[in-house]
C-alpha cells in the first residue's frame, strides 16, 4: 500500500500535477486574503503619545498613561499598515494642549483633525479613549557638564596616540528639572571600540542619557572624538645624575654616576633627541636623618616630543663622607 502511494506521488511530480495543485492552492489563499481585506472592520489600537514643539524650558513629568486607544473603521487594506508601523501619535504641545491651573490638558476628540492625517484619509476615527488626558510639567534648569569618552582602542604594533583623544564639544548643556541636574556631574558616551588602529581617529559617538524618571534634553546628542595616531619607537640614553640638597659639611659619593632612561616617542622625532633635554635628580633630603643607604632617582626634565619615559635603575647607592 505504501509503495503504491509513493509510486503515485512520484508520478504526479513527474507529470507536474502536484505543481499545478500548489499553484491553485496559493491562488485560492490569495483570493481569500484579498476578500477578507476588502471588508470593513472596526478595530481598537493602542497608541503612545509623542509630543512635538515642547518649549525648551519645560519638561513633562513621566506619565504611564500617556497613551490612548483609538477605535477606527475602514477596509482591511487601510487598517493593516497600522499593525506594522510605530504605534504612536504626534501631539503638538503648542496647538493641542491647554494649560489648566498647573497641568496641561489634552482632549483627543477636540483635536481629531490633527490625528486623522497620521492614520490615513481613508480611516474613520470612531472614538478615542480616554477622552481627556492630564499632564503635569516642571520648569527646566540648564547645566553645562563635561563629556567623558568611553574608549576601548587597541593599536597596531608600533602605533599609538600622539597627544591623547580630543572631544568636541568637550562639554554640553543638560536641560532637566533642577533636582535631576544637581546629581549630574558628567555624561558618558557610548563605547568607542576600535581595533588595530594605525591612522588618525575621527569618530562620532552618541552621548548616553542618564537613567532618570524625567525627559532629559541635551544641547548635543553626539560628540566628535579625534586623535592623531603616529608610528612610535623606543630609545635608551645614559643621563648623568644630579644630587640636590647635599649637606654643606660633607660629600655624597654615589654610584652609578649615570642612569639609563628608556623613552617612548614618535618615530619621526627620534633624531631630535639630545642629552641636554633630559635631567635626572636625587634629593638627599629624602634620606637625611635616616639609615637608608640609597637614593631614588627621578626624571625632572624631558624633551617635549617624548610621550613617556622611565629609569631602568630604581636605586642609587651612596656614602656620606664627612
Automatic annotation (TrEMBL):
Species name: Gaetbulibacter jejuensis
Protein name: YbbR-like domain-containing protein
Amino acid at each position: 500500500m505504501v509503495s503504491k502511494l509513493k509510486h503515485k506521488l512520484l508520478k504526479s511530480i513527474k507529470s507536474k500535477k502536484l505543481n499545478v495543485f500548489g499553484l491553485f492552492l496559493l491562488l485560492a489563499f490569495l483570493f481569500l486574503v484579498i476578500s477578507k481585506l476588502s471588508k470593513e472592520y472596526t478595530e481598537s489600537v493602542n497608541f503612545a503619545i509623542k509630543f512635538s514643539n515642547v518649549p525648551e524650558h519645560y519638561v513633562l513629568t513621566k506619565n504611564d498613561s500617556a497613551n490612548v486607544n483609538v477605535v477606527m473603521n475602514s477596509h482591511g487594506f487601510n487598517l493593516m499598515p497600522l499593525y506594522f508601523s510605530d504605534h504612536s501619535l504626534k501631539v503638538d504641545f503648542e496647538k493641542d494642549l491647554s494649560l489648566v491651573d498647573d497641568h496641561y490638558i489634552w482632549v483627543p476628540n477636540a483635536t481629531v483633525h490633527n490625528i486623522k492625517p497620521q492614520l490615513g484619509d481613508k480611516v474613520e476615527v470612531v472614538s478615542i479613549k480616554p477622552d481627556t488626558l492630564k499632564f503635569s510639567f516642571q520648569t527646566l534648569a540648564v547645566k553645562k557638564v563635561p563629556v567623558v569618552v568611553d574608549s576601548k582602542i587597541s593599536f597596531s604594533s608600533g602605533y599609538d596616540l600622539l597627544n591623547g583623544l580630543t572631544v568636541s564639544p568637550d562639554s554640553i548643556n543638560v536641560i532637566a528639572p533642577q533636582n535631576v541636574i544637581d546629581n549630574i556631574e558628567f555624561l558618558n558616551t557610548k563605547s568607542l571600540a576600535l581595533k588595530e588602529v594605525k591612522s588618525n581617529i575621527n569618530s562620532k559617538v552618541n552621548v548616553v542619557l542618564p537613567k532618570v524618571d524625567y525627559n532629559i534634553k541635551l544641547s548635543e546628542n553626539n560628540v566628535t572624538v579625534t586623535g592623531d595616531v603616529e608610528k612610535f619607537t623606543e630609545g635608551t640614553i645614559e643621563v648623568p645624575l644630579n644630587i640636590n640638597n647635599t649637606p654643606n659639611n660633607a660629600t655624597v659619593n654615589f654610584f652609578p654616576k649615570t642612569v639609563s632612561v628608556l623613552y617612548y616617542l614618535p618615530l619621526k622625532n627620534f633624531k631630535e633627541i639630545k642629552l641636554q633635554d633630559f635631567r635626572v635628580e636625587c634629593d638627599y633630603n629624602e634620606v637625611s636623618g635616616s639609615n637608608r643607604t640609597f637614593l631614588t632617582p627621578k626624571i625632572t626634565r624631558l624633551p617635549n616630543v617624548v610621550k613617556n619615559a622611565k629609569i631602568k635603575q630604581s636605586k642609587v647607592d651612596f656614602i656620606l663622607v664627612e
